[in-house]
Amino acid sequence: MPPPDADRQSRRRHARVLAARFPDAGRARVAIEGLQSAGIDGDDITLLSPFPEKSHRSTHAADTRITRYLVRRIVVGFLAGIAAGVLLGAAMGVVLVAVTAPSEPVGEAVALAAVGIVIGAPLGAYIAFERAGTLSDAWSVTFDDLEPGATWIGVRTRDLDEHERARHALARQQPIEVRQL
């Protein structure tokens, strides 16, 4: 039986590339986000096709689309943070009122709900912003003016564990097909 280190080294030597086809750039973008959430390095994710046309107009349009995408995600995160803050603050207010029996119980519950909003809204916006984009160049390219139709992304994996993580992350995004290159 080979030593455990030999098995680990054998698993590391199996660098592979997975290619996945999605119906459009938007779905490919979500898959890239999913890959990064699964721990795949953004430098190992590439856009295989279609290729963008490089022009000033294309860059301006892509910047506008990225901005709209991020603002939409931040607003949703902001609103979710408000909702979570209200619920958590009100729940804490109810517990505080039950324990202390103050003369103005509604005021304390409302005050803690307001504190929840003040803390939850920016926290929700920050988390939404942080989760919205990735450091992968392939992600930002999906906002460029691409030919309509199927979009291929590639994922370079260095070992079998990373390969399986990437395969599972891609499967959760329901690609049209996945190939090993």
Summarize the helices and strands and which ones pair or pack:
Elements: H1 4-12, E1 16-22, H2 25-37, E2 45-49, H3 56-100, H4 105-132, H5 137-141, E3 151-157, H6 160-172, E4 177-180
Antiparallel strand pairs: 1-3, 1-4, 2-3
Helix pairs in contact: 3-4
| Uncertain segments | none
Structural class: alpha+beta
Rg, rounded, reads 23 Å
- Count the domains: 2
Number of helices: 6
CATH structural fold name of the largest domain: Alpha-Beta Plaits
* Average pLDDT level: 85
Q: What percentage of amino acids are in beta strands?
A: 5-15%
- Termini distance? 31 Å
**What's the CATH C level of the largest domain?**
Alpha Beta
Global shape: elongated
**Helix content range of the residues, please?**
55-70%
Corresponding CATH architecture of the largest domain: 2-Layer Sandwich
- Main sheet specs: 4 strands, antiparallel
Number of strands: 4
**Strand arrangement across the biggest beta sheet:** 2-3-1-4
SSE run: HEHEHHHEHE
What does this structure look like?
- By secondary structure, the chain is an alpha+beta fold.
- It has 2 domains: 16-51 and 146-181, 2-Layer Sandwich (Alpha-Beta Plaits), CATH 3.30.70.2750; 68-134, no CATH class.
- Helices cover 62% and strands 13% of the residues.
- The protein has helices spanning 4-12, 25-37, 56-100, 105-132, 137-141, 160-172, and strands spanning 16-22, 45-49, 151-157, 177-180.
- The longest helix has 45 residues, at 56-100.
